[in-house]
Amino acid sequence: MSIRIDSGVVVGWSGTSHEIVLNGSVFLEGDTIKSVGTDKSQPADRVIDASGKIVCPGFINLHVHSQLNIGDYLLTDVTKKDYLAANWFVFGAPLKEKVEPPAPPAVAMGRRYALYSALRNGATTVLDPGGGPGALDDYVAIVGQTGGRVFFSPPFRSHDIFTDAEGRHYYEERSDKGRPGLKAAVDFIKTFHGAHNGRLQGILNPAQAETCEPSLLKESVAAAKELDVPVHIHAGGNFREFLEILNKYRKPVAEYLADVGILGPRTTLGHMAITGGHSRVDYPLGDELKILAETGATVGHCPHKCAKMAFAMESFDRYLEAGVRIGLGTDTYPLDIVSEMRYASLISRLVDRNASGARAAAVFNAATIGGATALGRSDLGRLAVGAKADVVIINLRTTRYGPVRDPINALVEYGSGADVETVIVDGEVVVENGSSTRINDDELLAQAEAGAKRAWDSWSARDWNGRSVEQIIPPAFPTRG
Ligand SMILES: [Zn+2]
């Protein structure tokens, strides 16, 4: 199957950076990009008219948990005055006695919804640091159905986090110390890495910096090296974690991770906003950005999620200037990588009080080649000959955008994942006119709605203090009917 995409504003690749080709043409054959330029003479099985549209490389979302937004909805718990115990602990740290494994159909539905939603919003590649625990061959089948490119293996950790009867959070060593989890991840990668014509790729996911003991991290690095896959770990994502590591290992988080040996060019750190140098931490020793830059690790920056929790990375520009590699992820819903570029830009400007900072090119690079570099893939995140045929087409000729002078500036300033019309992965059109060509969007949404309603309606049964969703997140307005 060959596809020619004609007459759009093409974001091509010069060999070292993105470049704009006006009235361009991209020719795809099988799963590969065969040409990018202005020649429209190649015969093709299908020609897509992209006039008035921008033809982008598929975006890379470095933080997509394959689960519904049930917990996300509760992130800003209004009852949590102990800020250190807020954030994802609100739903991710249950009362030990109330831990219940989720039902397999609910897990499968969450996976399908999240992976599709990220794809629908323009991310042809996602890094999944883990959703609900569930059957793994089932996960592989879902990646096959939805049609995107996914880096995944089940996450593991040596310590769990629970809430006690007073609402305090504590870490507890698992009796298995996380080793069966690491083994399950290694087995998953050995069995499924490369499935679906390579769309499913292995990545090791030691879950969080403070929930994995140093020896588990070292074993993870050794396993990743042997398997030849990248690593993701949540780190620098909240104040509780920073203090936990400082208290336990007597150093700030980036320094700790560097000393353990987990930082390197194939490691992505989900968030890494809270470093020793962060103004809210006020830790006066060392230079965490220098450490990050020297190791070549990538920060999987999720500005929207941080902003939800009332903090920011300090700052996108400062990290870049220090030589730190940055990719972008959403973490929280909506899984909209296009809007995430705007958040990255605006929040960096706010932090630095610099209206000319975090330019569109820099955040576009983060959402494309930054993610590709993190995953060790020079054939992703760019429209270059020989690269994977992963393409996103967005209509810029609407009254939302109005007159467009520069397409990348316009996309970053005004764009949203909702504007994505066409998504091509591995040379196959998987989203067309904003809908999946493989699954029924309406059916999926209805299933997601029913699943979320069930979970929210019965939330008090699993909450540490028996609270309802309305107590945790009061309705915006009094509601009747
Ligand atoms: Zn996460």
Describe this structure in words.
It is a single chain. The chain is α/β, with parallel strands linked by helices. It has 2 domains: 2-57 and 387-436, Urease, subunit C, domain 1; 59-374, Metal-dependent hydrolases (TIM Barrel). Helix content is 34%, strand content 21%. It contains 16 helices and 19 strands. Strands 1, 2, 3, 4, 5, 16, 17, 18 and 19 form a 9-stranded mixed sheet that branches. Strands 6-7-8-11 form a 4-stranded parallel sheet. Strands 12-13-14-15 form a 4-stranded parallel sheet. The chain starts with a strand and ends in a 9-residue tail after the last helix. It binds zinc ion. Residues 63, 65, 129, 234, 270, 331 line the site of zinc ion.
CATH class of the largest domain: Alpha Beta
Structural class given helices, strands, pairing? alpha/beta
CATH superfamily of the largest domain: Metal-dependent hydrolases
Per CATH, what is the topology of the largest domain?
TIM Barrel
Percent of residues in helices: 25-40%
The coarse overall form would be globular
What integer is the average pLDDT? 95
Give me the CATH architecture of the largest domain, please: Alpha-Beta Barrel
- The Rg value, from CA coordinates, equals 22 Å
What is the total domain count? 2
- How many alpha or pi helices? 16
